[in-house]
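## tool: complex_structure
## caller: assistant
## args:
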Amino acid sequence: MDVDAGHGAALGGALPTRPGELPLTRRLRSLLTWPTTDSDPVAQLVRAHRTIHSGADPAVLRRAYTIAENMHRGQFRKSGEPYITHPLAVAQICAELGMDTTTLVAALLHDTVEDTRYTLQALAEDFGPEVAHLVDGVTKFDKAFYGKAAEAETIRKMIIAAGKDVRVLIIKLADRLHNMRTLGVRSAASRERIARKTQEVLVPLCDRLGIQTLKRELDDVVLLHLEPEEHDRIARHVRDRPGWEAYLDAVVARAKTALRRSRVDAEVTPRPRHLYSIWKDTVAGDHPSPFDLPRIAIVVDGPPTDCYAALGAVHGTWRPVPGRFKDFIASPKNNLYRSLHTSVRGPEDRTVEVLIRTTEMHRAAEYGIAAEFRFPRTGSGSSARNEQLDWLRRVLDWEQDTADPAQFLESLRCDLAEAQIQVVADGRQVVLPAGATPVDLAYELGTERGDRCLAARINGRLAPLSSELDEGDVVEIFTETDATSGFEADAAPRGPRREWLGFVKSPQAQMQINRWFADHTEPGISIIDKVRLGRATIGLALRTHHRGLASDLPLLRLSEELGYPDLETMLVAVFDRVIEPDEVVRQLIDLVDHRQ
Ligand code: MN
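## result:
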């Protein structure tokens, strides 16, 4: 078997091309042993991958598996299985999601650098920089070296890597999903700890990236580890519902007839809720037994306007339940989810939930950012992807403003928090965290608007800047420029108030306010320090001219000559670069040489 065949094709030619034999080829000669029969350990992976990407070349997957298997040989999972079962399962999850070959290769190798003697450099030589970047992005910082900060630093590193290539996050999510599936063998305490962390950061991240197929399973497995009895109770309820299937079949058939009559081409299927979602509704509604309504999905084969035609057909058949209609096509959710939601009084007067969406919306809703890898040729969801990446870019923005990884993680958690509201400002919908204030809104509309905001009008009434906004509020923000236009044009900007930090909700606003104060007050550097550092700066500049100062007298004279009230003020100006040290030194030398 020619191990290099298809190499460039699969990796997009990412591998360094240089004369002579690749180290990989040497390494593989000693490893390649299995015959291509049913015992092929990657057969299932290759099959799953080629079901979605029929043209994919499996050779590189085999090579990656061989290296990973060899490197992990002798290592075992807590369950006692050989370690290689884990990366293989992670690659399988990625394959079923529809990811490309490069992602699968990186998934197979994702733990080699962290846990074996295989180095990132060797990996880059063997599989190219793209795979190396993906593996590096999911490689943890060493706890022994970084101590407590390791976890936060690791997430921060992963987010930065994802900014360059979002596939890093998809591998990480698949990795966590498999680890969560196999948590059973761990102690109760570590199961709970890992499940909580998954729920805090990875599940919301998955939601934000719109990958519902992964999120559903993560949700359920988190519930299993955090509330095992509740999980069992809901699972028993779902397994044992007499007449449920027949009822849904009847609903689907009626809906199909209604759609045909309205000449809407659509697929109609039962759409069961996942366990976690049933559990959440049960708890939220304080229901004594699991609360779960029959639900169907209508996926129309046409433009978005067909969704409204389908809605008309459904409402014409069954009476809608008041207050349950939601138009996420006109106002998509913050993860860009689009669909129409309604509830109707179905057959036997039972409430039925109905989701209506186009094929493209359905793909985006199920696969989110992974959709463009699963459906590469349709070009679907590429604008959605850009918007999702916008979010990631904004997160990276705060990352640059946050020196402390723990604070970054906290902001990320905050931003990922599930509760969101939509308000209307500047004639458009703006998504904000629940509990947000006009100041949060002002910063969402732009840094300048935030820094200069003075007052707000909510639904036509003036309101304090600390007011909590509600879903659907129409908000106007007044800024300094509006209030003072025409006069005081030269006045220095007033800037944000410190007390805002006490009530703003969004990390965006928090970061911007902190940034403003950092820019305007240089925290940590006192005037005394500035004087000292200004003097030291002049000392250094003088030394480059082989000069020095025997006393402060020449400096004092110069500060008078330049019009400063005292020497200290000039030194602060030097530190603040209001005057260049070289200029001070030039004048100083001039002054001394002329007076002597
Ligand atoms: Mn792993």
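## assistant note: DSSP finds 30 helices and eleven strands in the chain. The pocket of manganese (II) ion is lined by residues 86, 110-111, 175 (CB under 6 Å). Handing back to user.
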